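Write out this protein's structure.
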Amino acid sequence: MSAIPTMAFKLRSSKFRHVYGAPAKKNQCYECINITKNAHDSDFCAVNPKFLAVVTECAGGGSFLVLPLEWTGRQEINSPKVIGHRGVVLDLKWNPFNDNIIASCSEDCTVKLWLIPDGGLRINLSDWIMDLHGHERRVASLEWHPTAENILLSAGFDYKIIVWNVAQGEAVNVIECHTDTIYSMSFSRNGSLLATTCKDKQIRIIDPRTGDLIHSGKGHQGSKSSKVVFLGDHDRLLTTGFSRMSERQLAIWDKNDLSKPLKLDIVDSSSGILIPHYDYDSAIVYLAGKGDGNIRYYELVNNSPYVHYLSEYKSSSPQRGLGMMPKRGLDVMKCEITRFYKLHIVKGMVEPVSMVVPRKSEQFHVDLYPDTVGPLPALTADEWLQGADKDPLLISLKVGAQKKSYKPQVYRPGENPLDSKNLSNMKFKFVEQTHAVDYSATSTSVVKKNLENRKRMEESKEEGLSAFDSKRKNLDMDNIADIPESELRKAYFEQMEEIKSLKGEVALKDKQIQQLREELKNR
């Protein structure tokens, strides 16, 4: 008998081959949010280890909701919002070096910076800390510099990209090499280069300090929007877009040669715009389409074919956008490598979706969590503008996970931050020596202190309830018809604020106690 020929299959080894998406339980979601119905191709959502920001629908002007992460569950219909824009808000971005500063852009042709207090908003916020004017048409997207402090880029429908030094409140450069609407922009790992996609179907590599065009080439040939992301320090770009036949495509490019892609794949034939979310530490890119219910993810490698399909998270609920949590906000003990905040189109809900590597042991896995980008800048704005380039400052997630930056904005005594003279002065004078980020392990003294704080919180809760009873007694319930509506409304809002404050404090303390228990268990 002749031997039967056999074919040898070699299975590619990857520690991320079995990554799966785990949606949060209902009590960990954010419900009753009037999410915007705008058709713009941004994510309408931004998240950091402290806050979740979501663009909301409103009758006039533009607004967005900012919630502390622990405020899960049903949200009040009259929850305080940021309401300073005169047009619809199109994009949001948190400052990577200050968890309390968020930038927003709008159809009113402005870019505004807002200071969100710890603990969230108690009343509507309409007072910005910086108002940047320079665009002649609506502003479509924003991008913070990855290593230099206070450098912000804005792209508008006037075909311009403006480089702002937000500490001075002035434009330091205007990039005018585009001939049509700018779809997206992405910084390289150290912020020395900027990649953009445009409606003229060109991909461009630009020097953001001078505005000089370094490389350009033909991108996706479809008529719909395309997106680009720099793949860290690998000298490659990833783009998503459409073919002439309206098929969704994924392409890998060499940043030094944009004449043709290194790899071009057809994803599917759906109509929603694909938005890429790149995780540098795990070299995984997540593709989420507008109106899709699934999230595909691919692993990137240095050699051909450059990209390998891993799997997809499937859901029956379509998404309007995704917010991606920075690495330092993840739960490393649960092997969570990415967390998205999914905006539901129909339900008015924001649902956290965790991407998890299945591991049995509940300990820190060094192979899953290399040192990642920390909340401290590597350069000042002036150093970067003078030509300096540095890689991001890294932290270890073994002690730096779920850490937040505490760098408040302060002014000289007697200064009015909204005074016109101060708008041109330094706006970000951080007290770094006394408010540095603490990455040290939690000691037993901290446990004791938290227990004392919890006791004081319970006492203050009892005092608050007694005060609430006294206020209720002051209102003559027998003659409530004679009480002015304004007084009743005022009492109602005061009661709602007290209840919300107490709920927030209890949730925060419970979360801190749970973290301390896990840390003590892992010692």
